[in-house]
Amino acid sequence: MNTSNDPLHGKKLADILDELLDYYGGFEGLSRKIEIRCFCIDPSVKSSLRFLRTTPWAREKVESLYLYVLLQKAKQKSQLSKP
Questions:
Q1: Pfam families of this UniProt entry (predicted)?
Q2: Fewest CB within a 10 Å sphere: which of 1, 6, 17, 66?
Q3: How many Cβ atoms sit within 10 Å of the Cβ of residue 54?
């Protein structure tokens, strides 16, 4: 059975966006990390997903930030488990 080492494998864009919104406290926090207009001006999940699906450079930025957040969470978890 093949398993992918890619943390994005099998992840839906909507799930990635939801996790980032939770991590950064909504669109305001997310727009401070990634300056994409769909996060700054009248943001909604639906309009953001539509934009990200049709704009490769924006999707790459969101996916890169998601990978960074996963790394940060892993670091925090490993620091908490150390005695």
A1: VF530 (PF09905)
A2: 1
A3: 9
**One-letter amino acid for residue 82 of the chain:** K
- Write out pLDDT tens, residues 14-56: 999 999 999 999 999 999 999 999 999 999 999 999 999 999 9
Secondary structure (DSSP) of 9-55: TT--HHHHHHHHHHHHTSHHHHHHHS--HHHHSS--HHHHHHHHHH-
Q: How many structural domains is the chain composed of? A: 1
Residues 6+ away with beta carbon under 8 Å from 51:
36, 38, 58
pTM of the model: 0.86
Question: Is there a domain that residue 67 lies in?
Answer: yes
Is the separation of the CB atoms in 73 and 22 below 8 Å? Answer: no
